[in-house]
Write a structure and sequence with these properties.
The complex is a heterodimer of chains A (about 350) and B (about 150).
Chain A lengths: L8 H18 L10 H8 L1 H7 L3 H13 L17 E4 L2 E4 L4 E3 L6 E3 L6 E5 L2 E5 L5 E6 L3 E8 L4 E7 L2 E6 L6 E2 L11 E2 L8 E4 L5 E4 L6 E4 L8 E4 L5 E5 L3 E6 L4 E6 L4 E5 L2 E6 L2 E4 L2 E5 L6 E4 L5 E6 L4 E6 L6 E5 L1 H4 L8 E3 L1
Antiparallel strand pairs in A: 1-2, 1-28, 2-3, 4-5, 5-6, 6-7, 8-9, 9-10, 10-11, 12-13, 13-14, 14-15, 16-17, 17-18, 18-19, 20-21, 21-22, 22-23, 24-25, 25-26, 26-27
Chain B lengths: L1 H19 L2 H18 L9 H23 L20 H7 L3 H11 L5 H8 L3 H17 L1 H5 L1
Helix pairs in contact in B: 1-2, 1-3, 1-5, 2-3, 3-5, 5-7, 6-7
Classes of the chains: A mainly beta (about 350), B mainly alpha (about 150).
Amino acid sequence: MREFTAPDEPRAQARTWDVVAAAFAEREPVRRRHVPVRPLVALAIVGALAAVAFTPPGHAVIDSVRKAVGIENARRALYSLPTRGRLLVGPWIVSADGSTRNLGSYDDTSWSPFGRFVVATRGDTLYALQPDGTVRWKLGRPVVRAPRWGGTHVDTRIAYFSGQRLRVVGGNGEGDHEVGPVMGGLVAPAWRPGGAPFTLAYADIRGRVWVFEPDTGKLLFRTHAGPAPLKLAWSADGSRLLVLRRRTADVYDTHGRRLTHFAGRFVDAAFVGAHIALLSPHAVTLSGRTLFRTTGRLRQVVPSPDGRWLLLTWPEADQWLFVRTAGRHRVTAAANIAEQLGGGFAVDGWTS
Amino acid sequence: MERLYRAHWPRAYRAAYLVVHDSAGAEDIAQEAFLAAVRALDRFDRRRPFGPWLHRIVVNRAIDWARARTLRGEVEANESLATDPDPPKELPELVRALAALPPDQRAVVVLRHLLEYTPGEIADLLDLPRGTVNSRLRRGLDALKSDERVHRT
């Protein structure tokens, strides 16, 4: 046994060293007694921190905190995206050239197919918006949340929750009605890409995932009960459904057969072409390859429309990281995201 | 850090592999253990040996991983992280026989015969009574001795 060499040992050693070396380089050595007292006092005044951030000395204080958390050589702001497309960040649209547009005061937001429109909520009202913020139509419903727009170029539907009741309305604002066999849970529903027949996945309060055709009521399949899903997402070709829970990620085909099972601690996941990016609190993997790992806590993974980049959000560092999915390993970071986007940070979609 | 890594990674990875019998899982476990080391580096008492500290993390995580995998009855698929990307073709029979043991027995056998800890040290590493360690070691070695694959080698 002492002479044993494990499979893949040299490559595993090299891969792991990349990650360990990066984590070692990013770590902030523990500061001892020589840390100046004044910055510590400033940091301790939580309420004043926001005001401090907008004065020149305040920027220096925030920068010293930032260096202890996040990528050290992050750009001071988001100047551009690494590839084509537009991000939706709450009521903000961020274009590839880094320009931003605010749609108005909205809560939940989501792109329509192909990024032609945005669906948004504010209070008890559902809105369909053009990307310049113009309201196309609106619909009043109690406790409206988690809207998702699906369909084709010529026929679309919006699914949303009114309280725990799942409802569907046409992309033109007509035909609103309740659907779904049972009450819904917290996670947003997910339309299968491609349209007809329109197929929708949603989770109920027992953690069962239902996949059905809202137009006919036909049930395609239903999973067993389990912990509440964190996310439901279809592959781009509509052939597979990802059900992400805190400890598992399962992929099903359209007949309900489970094709893949991952176990771990997950906070997010996404299809990247035929593969799946899995995000744990400290790392993102793609097809079993660790693309990035940190001692900080990551929150979201969002693939670019062309699949060449992953956007990782790092809330405590107020940074977005862009990680290449293939080819030469590359990570770039942009800081001060919430400041640029008026407090916005969580990404609601990246479209072409 | 690099010196520590080069000195300790191979045995950590091999120990993890022998317990979980999955190279992707072993890589993740060894990686996690070293990242824990990076996080704890400033607080680590350098008078203590690094190896036992690292091996404690590796083997405990490996046992948890192996137990959880058994309970789940995972489905193997093309891009599953649980699938060994580099299926070993010429693994020693002893290693294959080891994989047939329960995770708890595998762990103590690996700690004794790969990492060369005494039963007393193993008891400390795994927070177990010494008698439990001796018992698992005896049962594990008995099972290996009676395994036909081992006798064929």
